[in-house]
């Protein structure tokens, strides 16, 4: 369960870029746990316009605090943080990704490599979420999901109680932005 409600579009962009760059490194060495990113490159790819490093630092601190819960139909459960450890080193930042995330990247069962320029152009966090889902199911039809599953996917379980609000504030805005700014056309 990805807890989307706790992170902003900026934080999601930063994390997507971290995953993308980590995926490139894991292709070379699938045992790697720490990844070093150039601070300026990370800010540039995320579209962070701040000249100081404060906003990126805050984004990474939030990502460290986000807890992901997992469970299955056999009553097995667990949890992990999006980032295990981080430290700034001169012009770079070193980040440790949790085992669960690294294994998912290596096994290619969770993360899909995406166009960084496209992600950078999207401003809404729901747009980024739906764009990632659309890419994950690019070769097949996106599966039907219940409203509860959609709420969990988008982190809207505690807000937008009325479906009309979800339709207007989440679906319609995100679909319009994706259709205008990407090569994917979505509808519902």
Structure summary, number of beta strands: 5
> Quick one: biggest sheet?
3 strands, antiparallel
Oligomer: single chain
* Topology pattern, helix = H, strand = E: HEHHEEEEHHHHH
Strand content: 5-15%
Give the termini separation: 23 Å
Low-confidence stretches: 1-5
Strand order of the largest sheet: 1-5-4
Structural class: alpha+beta
Binned, the helix content reads 40-55%
Shape label? globular
Structure, described:
By secondary structure, the protein is an alpha+beta fold. The protein is built from eight helices and five strands; from the N terminus they run αβααββββααααα. Helix 6 crosses helix 8.
Keywords:
alpha+beta, 3-stranded antiparallel β-sheet, 13% strand, disordered N terminus
Question: How do the strands and helices of this protein lay out in sequence?
Answer:
Blueprint: H1 9-28, E1 34-38, H2 39-46, H3 54-65, E2 67-71, E3 77-81, E4 85-89, E5 92-96, H4 99-107, H5 116-121, H6 125-136, H7 147-154, H8 163-181
Antiparallel strand pairs: 1-5, 2-3, 4-5
Provide a compact summary of the structure:
By secondary structure, this protein is of the alpha+beta class. Helix content is 50%, strand content 13%. Helix 1 (9-28) crosses helix 2 (39-46), helix 1 packs across helix 3 and helix 6 packs across helix 8 (163-181).
